[in-house]
Amino acid sequence: MPKIINQKIMSYQVKSSDSKEQDQKQQKSDTSNIVHMHESVKRPEMLLGSTYKIKTPLSDHALYVTINDIVLNQGTEHELRRPFEIFINSKNMDHFQWVVALTRVISAVFRKGGDCTFLTEELKAVFDPKGGYFKPGGKFMPSLVAEIGDAIESHLKMIGLLKEDSLDEHQQLLVNQKRAEYEALHHQGTSPKSSADFPDSAQMCVKCMTKASILMDGCRTCLNCGDSKCG
């Protein structure tokens, strides 16, 4: 639909084909200056790093996962923080070979550019044939590799490449209602507000992988994410 001009036209100017080409070249020049993540990006002398401690019942020694980030287009409107490399270290290096292999492969994926968020789901889907374990607070980890994936996911959320898993207003209202009902049924002073407060008898929720699913009114209901078999 053409735009209607209500005001009086005082003057006008017709752009030539040369000026149009010049504008297009200028736009291309502006976008060509934007640095994207790719394998040829050189490693700066200094990178921003974050270290995550992983302590599991599988070992007496903790595992330390360090992820270093590179800042692209620093100081411009196109500034972007992207993961560049990962290091994993521990006093217990019984699995040294696969740890080194994992860090090299993940670092290569980081440097290649594009979407690297798929790594978290791939790693978190690895199950240990000997069985997983529960972290403090009741969250289930199917393997050590899955917990490394969980640490990477936390880091990607921290730098803004992944969105935080948060309940919407309706879901949060439902969870609060279920917690209040549970507190009233069991005559507790306070309803559980965090994963550490969930009942000892709670089972693992298959949706959020947290030990927070309890039986209410004959139906399994999660006090963490609100998932219920009864809707």
Explain what you see.
The protein has 231 residues and is of the alpha+beta class. It has two domains: 111 residues; 54 residues, no CATH class. It contains five helices and eight strands. The strands form three sheets. It has a three-stranded antiparallel beta sheet with strand order 1-2-3. A three-stranded antiparallel beta sheet has the order 6-7-8, covered by helices on one side. The two termini are 47 Å apart.
Amount of helix:
25-40%
Structural class: alpha+beta
Termini separation comes to 47 Å
Count the strands? 8
Name the shape in a single word. flat
Mean pLDDT: 81
The unreliable regions are 189-195
* Rg over C-alpha atoms, rounded to the nearest angstrom: 26 Å
Side by side, the strands of the main sheet go: 1-2-3
Q: Tell me about the largest β-sheet.
A: 3 strands, antiparallel
User: Into which percentage range does the β-strand content fall?
Assistant: 15-25%
Total number of helices: 5
Tally of separate domains: 2
**Topology pattern, helix = H, strand = E:** HEEEHHEEHHEEE
